[in-house]
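Lab notebook, design round three. We kept the backbone fixed and only want residue identities now. Task for the bench partner: fill in a sequence for the structure below.
Input structure tokens:
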């Protein structure tokens, strides 16, 4: 009986969170198109989100390319299909692995950082002080961060994809003596417009989800230092969940268009 009540409370809290997040997103849409615009803060956030994430995204993408090729090559050798390696790796990374892995990495780094940063500002009453001084804290703190993640995640995805393909090429060059030109000619021959565009489009939505959840959790942080930790932790969990849901929706819609 107690377990059942806990489940009911958990489900109710989940839907309450979704409702609050929807209102938060609606406020973001209203504030984003209303002047004045905080261009200098937006550039600063783009630097924080994009430039500071490059090393982590680059190393992760490079290692994914290496590991995927090393793990797949023996199986393809058994069937005499090693020549299909560039095609398989290119399609896998561009369509699915690259966007999702980069988004999850950025969810761990960016969403938690935003949740902790805005949560600390809420706990120390800096956001309240901004409201009293006549500044719009939502536009300055939230809108700039969400737009920055929406813009930067697709760029980071492309960067991670390139390094993943280069890591895969190094394995093929070492194991099979495949030239750079031959490898990437096969990769680009296997890819089509329908592979690139959906991957980039869903990266924009991943970025928006990461920024939205991180800012939502931090901006509505509960009082006390414990609330800051909870905001950072739940931001990562919720952002990761949204990434998987959005990825499923994107794949489902892409599959419908492929059938047409």
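Proposed sequence:
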């Amino acid at each position: 009986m107690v377990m059942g009540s806990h489940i009911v409370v958990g489900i109710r809290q989940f839907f309450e969170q979704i409702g609050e997040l929807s209102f938060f997103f609606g406020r973001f849409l209203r504030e984003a198109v209303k002047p004045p615009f905080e261009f200098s803060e937006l550039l600063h956030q783009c630097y924080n989100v994009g430039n500071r994430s490059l090393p982590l995204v680059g190393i992760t993408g490079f290692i994914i390319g290496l590991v995927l090729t090393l793990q797949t090559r023996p199986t393809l050798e058994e069937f005499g299909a090693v020549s299909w390696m560039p095609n398989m790796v290119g399609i896998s990374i561009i369509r699915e692995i690259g966007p999702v892995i980069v988004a999850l990495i950025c969810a761990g780094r960016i969403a938690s950082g935003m949740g902790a940063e805005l949560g600390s500002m809420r706990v120390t009453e800096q956001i309240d002080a901004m409201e009293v001084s006549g500044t719009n804290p939502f536009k300055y703190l939230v809108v700039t961060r969400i737009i920055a993640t929406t813009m930067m995640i697709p760029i980071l995805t492309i960067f991670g994809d390139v390094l993943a393909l280069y890591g895969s090429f190094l394995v093929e060059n070492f194991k099979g003596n495949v030239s750079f030109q031959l490898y990437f000619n096969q990769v680009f021959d296997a890819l089509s417009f329908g592979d690139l565009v959906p991957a980039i489009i869903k990266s924009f939505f991943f970025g928006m989800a990461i920024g939205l959840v991180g800012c939502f959790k931090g901006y509505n942080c509960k009082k006390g230092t414990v609330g800051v930790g909870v905001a950072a932790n739940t931001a990562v969990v919720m952002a990761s969940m949204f990434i998987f849901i959005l990825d499923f929706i994107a794949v489902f819609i892409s599959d419908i268009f492929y059938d047409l």
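Keep this in mind before ordering anything: The two ends are 50 Å apart (CA to CA).
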